[in-house]
Amino acid sequence: MNNDSHLWTPWRMPYLRGEDRKDYDDCLFCVKGDGDPGDPAFDDREHIIARSAHVYVTLNAYPYNNGHLLIVPYAHVPSIEPLPADALTDLMHTLNRALAALRTVYQPHGFNVGANIGEAAGAGIAEHFHLHVVPRWSGDSNFMTIAAGTRVIPDTLDASCQQLRAAWDT
Q1: The one catalytic residue among 47, 54, 130, 132
Q2: Residue 89 is part of a domain; what is its CATH number?
Q3: Closest to 140 measured CA to CA, from 104, 111, 169, 98
Q4: Closest CA to 76 of 33, 132, 121
Q5: 24-79, pLDDT tens digit by residue?
Q6: Is residue 1 part of a domain?
Q7: Of 60, 84, 94, 118, most Cβ neighbours within 10 A?
Q8: Euclidean distance between CA atoms 116 and 123, whole angstroms
Q9: Phi-psi region at 5: left, alpha or beta (left = phi > 0; alpha = psi -120 to 50)
Q10: Is residue 130 annotated as part of the catalytic site, yes or no?
Q11: Domain for residue 156, yes or no?
Q12: Full DSSP string of 16-69
């Protein structure tokens, strides 16, 4: 098979070299959660959409689709079971708000909502429970995924963050 076409993705090289990975001495989710809510520059840099009493919402740095959100408890727990009832309630109320904001900004046809609990289940940060919210569209498995195992994310994290923040309270 002759493949004369190339897909150039020079913005991926810093990731492949490990240059764009932030080094945290502590848990990434704890560092993000401990950020100063009064410091908009911190939330901008970390792509934090919203904060509530027990959880915060941030964009996934390596999204499956545009708008791939993570709802993260401030509590550093490896699974959902240790969370108290008020944190669980806040998690679900925040999930509802996240779904509404994603519907406003992206008009998805559906959602995947779930958690990978434990390394064996695919959790990238297994020591800190978090919930994934992924907007989906009919036919969003395009030729890139099938032909090259590559995802095409048409918008930047910065733009997604700004749009979702604006839609959060609507």
Answers
A1: 130
A2: 3.30.428.10
A3: 111
A4: 33
A5: 568 999 999 988 766 889 999 999 999 999 999 999 988 888 899 999 999 999 99
A6: no
A7: 94
A8: 5
A9: beta
A10: yes
A11: yes
A12: HTT-SPPP-SS-HHHHHHHS-TT-HHHHHHHTEEEE-SSEEEEE-SS-SSTT-E
Do the Cβ atoms of 96 and 90 come closer than 8 Å?
no
Span 149-165, pLDDT tens digits? 556 676 788 888 899 99
Give domain status of residue 57, yes or no.
yes
- With tokens 């429970």, the residue in question is 129
Rounded CA gap, 100 and 86, in Å? 21
129: number of Cβ within 10 Å = 24
> Which amino acid makes up residue 73?
P
What is the C-alpha to C-alpha distance for residues 96 and 36, in angstroms, rounded to an integer? 25
**5 in a domain, yes or no?**
no
Nearest CA to 67 out of 12, 107, 114 is that of 107
Residue pair 76/128 in contact by the 8 Å Cβ criterion? yes
Q: 55-59 and 69-73 as β-strands: parallel, antiparallel, unpaired?
A: antiparallel
Rounded CA-CA distance 22/31 in Å is: 11
